[in-house]
Structures are given as structure tokens and as C-alpha cells.
Amino acid sequence: MGVDPELRARADAVAEASDNVRAQWRRGWVDPSLRTREYEIVLGWFVQALEAFFTPVEQLPEQVRVGDPEAIEVALSYLETAPRCFRSGYLAEQLMRRLARAHFTPDQRTRVASIVIAETSHRQSRGWRDIGALAGAVWDDLLADSLAVLSAQGGLRGLRATRITAAAAVWRASTR
């Protein structure tokens, strides 16, 4: 499935609406009279964008938990798309936790490993345990070597690779 352009567009709409709300809010402090109708319109647009983004995916963590193969595909696509908007990271964390217990096809295992590697260059979640659990679920020599190479390179990506490796080790130890 891969990157979902429709999901990315919905996330971009939320991000843009959020920026507009912040701009209106800042302007409202300068002139409170501007905060009335225009602010309500922008806030309404933000709420609509949020609903359009989250309604199709709000049940996804539970569907993944029960092992729905289609939901697993959509969840992987969500993580590959890596949408950046209000509350998208919380959903990514939930999906990572749920996917760590899912059964993957060989193709899906490869996609999960790619998601883990991508996490070293752009953080999608706050929790190292979540991405570590996901990495631990598909851990193999190739993923271990890839993360080791990134760790050895140092810098921010190297630090993230080291933290993911450590979190994956904790997860793997807890599931034995």
C-alpha cells in the first residue's frame, strides 16, 4: 500500500487549519474585536479538518489489536505516510504498540523495518518504547546491522538508532 496521498492531504489540511487558528488567536490579542466571527469560522474549519482526518482512522488501533489484516495494512500505510498534524503522533504511538503484537507477512516485515529506519530521521512519536517494540517485533540481522551502522555514524540519527536498538532489546527480552 505504501504512502497514502489522501491521508497526507488530510493531515496537511489539519496542519494548515491549526496554523490559521494560531494566527487568528495571536491577532485576537491585538484586537479582541477580530476574535468574533472570523475566529469562529477558522476554528470551525479546524474542527472539520480534524474530523476528516481522524474519522477514517480512529478505530484503527482496536482493529489492529484484534488482528484485522486490512487494518494492519492501513496502519502500516499510516506509519509510512507519517502525517504531521495535531494529535497524529499519539495515533502513531498507539498503532506502533498494537502492531508490535501483530502477525506480518514477509512483505509487511520489510515495510515495518523501513518504518523503523525512517524513524531515525524524523520522529513520529514521543515514546521510544513504542518504536522499540515495533522494531523488536521484526528484529533480524539486517535491521540490527542497519541500526548499528546509523548508530556508528553518530549525530541525531545515530542517537535515535541507538535508542531504538536499546528499546527493541528491552521489548524482545520481555516477550521471551
Molecular structure report:
This protein has 176 residues and is mainly alpha-helical. The chain contains 9 helices and no strands. The longest helix is centred in the first third of the chain and has 26 residues, at 5-30. The model has no long low-confidence stretch (mean pLDDT 88).
What would the average pLDDT be, to the nearest integer? 88
Q: Major β-sheet, in short?
A: none
Beta-strand portion reads under 5%
Helix content: over 70%
Distance between the ends: 31 Å
Structural class: mainly alpha
Give the CA-based shape. Answer: elongated
Oligomer: single chain
The value of Rg in angstroms is: 19 Å
Strand tally is: 0
Regions with little confidence, pLDDT below 50 for 5+ residues: none
Separate helix tally: 9
Give the topology string: H per helix, E per strand: HHHHHHHHH
List keywords for this structure.
176 residues; 74% helix
Brief summary of the model shown:
The protein is mostly helical and 176 residues long.
